[in-house]
Amino acid sequence: MSHNTGDLLVVDDQMGVRRLISEALLDAGYLVDQAVDGREALDLLKEKKYQLIILDVKMPGMSGVETLHEIRKIDRDVPVVLMTAYEELDLLEEADKLGVAHFLCKPFDLNELRSLARQYTQTSSRRDAARVIS
Known about the structure:
The chain is globular. It is built from five helices and five strands. Helix 2 packs parallel to helix 3. It has helices at residues 15-27, 38-47, 64-74, 89-97, 110-133, and strands at residues 7-11, 31-35, 52-56, 80-84, 102-105. It has a five-stranded parallel sheet. Strand 1 (7-11), helix 1 and strand 2 (31-35) form a beta-alpha-beta unit.
């Protein structure tokens, strides 16, 4: 197992999807927290800094885009990968305005997900190091 650094948060109302994503990222050496909905994700985000959030668009209660609005109030810089099985242009445009790092269409390849995690956690680490130096 490789040892990547960084805490990741997976937010999806479907347990099977959360488990699949989390196991793939755990196997790649990441520390992964899970949230069943937007409210739980926001509670976790208030307690811990994440290097990447993987967020589903369609969830009961608070949608992924609504959750993203609230995430940006807590952490403007955390990269967010938005997962969707839908081509809802208005939602995707709104999410893009909120600074989504990447859109991931379901079903997706777990290798693509691991690659995104590697890319965004390395970027996040460099950004944090620059803050310490400046």
